[in-house]
């Protein structure tokens, strides 16, 4: 077996407790091992992506128990791509957290970070639905610790809300798994796909119930309206480097929809027909619209970026809901873009808040305003989908994929109008934050209702490493734009692999299917 498949899970799973038990009183050593661990994860991700790019689907059987009796990890193009995205995102974030001092404002930041990476990579690699639930719970525990890092009543309140809402999702997940197990007798994804296809038409009512519950769970994770209420306050009140890492969290929900509904609940399954197009597509359209309106209406920069995350998820799920190879390829390209762009804006928002508070209103000039405003401009045009960056390519691909859809006019209208509203909202914020200034002592800026007292300006600007980390995210967007051709080729082949699930099933089950 190829042991590289489990390495993205094993490495952070070993490193996180090592940091807690051995290095808990040595912050400098924590930082060294944490950065080394993320660099190692990136190297592993590049290795398995190269292995998966040939199209072979590889399976790792834990304990040498074959599927469907044992738990398996599966490496294909999609899982490799998502692990690579996770590693690419983690590196600038851990460097920024070190440079900005966020990692020393509370306890166990680096251990929690690696537990988070373990959960994310595990969710992307698992071939078992119950194991997916387990990794979701690892994500929930680690993300709660990261959210409340640094303390504060507002942050604690947002963290409790986040946990409560996600526990509802976890409960629904268990109900969905129980229902599907009762119908199919298995929780292995490939085996479930085989048994779903063999079910008689008169015995599929419970199967549809389970599929609907599963879709609700993934929509909660992806912050689809009206299941998005946890996201704005949670992301806005978390430490913003943590919120930047959370840019991958909503993509776990989107990934799970792609994995489960191309594998076992596709349009050829009569019991689950219409779930994606009839249910997910309208919700995605409204999610994009509400996200864009939130960008325009909020008075706090962190909440504005949180609404940017919601709007980008709306665009992504519109592409997924079209449920074609072309649209899925566009969605895969857009996943990469939107994750990097959202993380970039969260890091820029932290640079702003540490210098002049988070209110979108004129204040006294802040240090390094020119450089930060340039970074904000790059992130804004990327998330809004303006040329020349990858956001423009991603939205163009989604629009092109929707040309032949029954609701093509509505999709085009919502995406284009949403992009325009997003541009206006981001331009308004940039103008008020960077171009207008006044005497803050006599005219204090307004504060958002969910925000604590405005942050005081940093006594000294962050060192250059913080800006290096932010420029790393910018570099990712530039590279995704320059190498759009190879990226789209990989996305096309990944979509083709997703829509031929027989290869996945054969690889996992071997001669048992």
How do the helices and strands line up, and which of them pair or pack?
Blueprint lengths: L6 H16 L4 H26 L5 E4 L10 E4 L1 H24 L8 H17 L3 H19 L5 H32 L4 H10 L6 H17 L8 H8 L2 H6 L3 H15 L11 H23 L3 H22 L2 H32 L12 H16 L5 H12 L6 H28 L28 H19 L1 H15 L2 H9 L4
Antiparallel strand pairs: 1-2
Helix pairs in contact: 1-2, 1-4, 2-3, 3-4, 3-14, 3-18, 4-5, 5-6, 6-8, 6-9, 7-20, 8-11, 9-13, 11-13, 12-13, 12-17, 13-14, 13-17, 14-15, 14-16, 14-18, 14-19, 15-17, 15-18
Give short descriptive properties of this protein.
513 residues, mainly alpha, two-stranded antiparallel ribbon, 20 helices, 2 strands, 2% strand
Describe the structure in your own words:
There is one protein chain. The protein has 20 helices and 2 strands. It has 513 residues and is mainly alpha-helical. It has a two-stranded antiparallel sheet with strand order 1-2. Helix 2 packs antiparallel against helix 3, helix 7 crosses helix 20 and helix 14 runs antiparallel to helix 18.
